[in-house]
Specification:
7-stranded mixed β-sheet, 39% helix, alpha/beta
């Protein structure tokens, strides 16, 4: 009887630990993206308030992250033809020099910013983390993990969420 009780306690404890880490690493945290303190590629401190009243796709990324690179490349491929009415904002905690080198190397037309704190301090433990914000300032999508921008149904869904 005592062994069964110990086993049950261990199983329940293990399950609770699993749920904790799953929620921490696979759930995009609630945040106010327009209130983040960011640094531009020129080294100026700025908030995203200049993007209010616009549709914005915010991607938290790192230049070393393979999924981030694939997602940004795919997003770049369809950006001019399908997403002209969406401002893409890329936020990293990489050093500014690395951020600028990455942007220049890939020739992305997106807005790049460095977070003033580590992404983990914002509650972002898994990248890429994506936030789609409509022109009213409402977050209509939060997603941890890369978005498959090559899938037309995904693009259609994203555009519908902004209406």
């Amino acid at each position: 009887m005592k062994n069964r009780l110990i086993l049950l306690v261990l199983l329940v404890s293990g399950f609770l630990v699993f749920l904790f880490f799953y929620n921490r690493y696979r759930t995009a945290p609630q945040l106010d993206p327009f209130n983040l303190s960011l640094t531009t590629s020129e080294g100026k401190v700025q908030r995203l308030s200049s993007f209010r009243n616009k549709n914005v796709m915010i991607v938290f990324y790192a230049s070393w992250c393979p999924d981030c690179r694939v997602e940004l490349d795919d997003l770049n491929e369809i950006y001019a033809s399908r997403l002209r009415n969406i401002e893409v904002v890329c936020i990293t905690d990489d050093p500014i020099e690395k951020m600028n080198s990455f942007k220049k190397k890939k020739n992305y037309p997106f807005h790049f910013f460095q977070a003033s704190v580590q992404l983990s301090e914002l509650g972002i433990f898994t990248i890429p983390a994506n936030y789609l914000v409509n022109a009213d300032g409402n977050i209509v999508l939060q997603k941890v993990g890369a978005i498959n921008w090559r899938d037309n149904s995904v693009v259609v869904k994203m555009l519908e969420l902004l209406k």
